[in-house]
Amino acid sequence: KDVQKEREPHLYLSKEEVKEKIQSYNSSVTDKLKMTLNANGIYTGFIKVQMELCRPITVQSSQSQGRCAHNNNETAFYLPDGCVITLHISSTNTVREVIEALLKKFFMADNPAKFALYKRCHKEDQVYTCKLSDREHPLYLRLVAGPRTEMLSFVLHEHETGEVMWEAFSIPELQNFLRILDKEENEQLQILKKRYAAYREKLEEALGGVWKPG
Length: 214
Known about the structure:
By secondary structure, the chain is α+β, with helices and mostly antiparallel strands.
């Protein structure tokens, strides 16, 4: 019900109300990312999206950076933590179109169906995260909330594990993911071996060399 209440005003805002909100929004902007109202009533502006991805993304190998696993012309790698993308969009752009634009900006070959856009709201010292439907309009939400990202921010996540559309992944992508997991598993195994070797050495030193493992 709360989500429905938030969507309803979008259906009833008059052109004059939109104009007033944009003027108020632009007067509060501190980073020069203002909104522009066109004669046809459509407005354009900017949103920032935090990329919080747990799984590696797939890009063309010539565009890739960082830790990766190769497969022909594609590469799977992890995005760095805290990566924020700024997009210039219009009031007609839907959540699905925003996700597609994000993937295009990163030269990502992944299927858009793997991802979901969330809004993160701060109310009364509490943080609420809500998954947006494909048909919602992020720029409208930005306009209503104002320019302050601490009041409203957008985050891109993969679908939850139970919601993952595995058929959206190609065989090369899954193979790349397995290679990365194998590499990480081996790295963690080496770390554990070194840690326990250090423990063993200290124990042997404490025993004065009297006890030796068989």
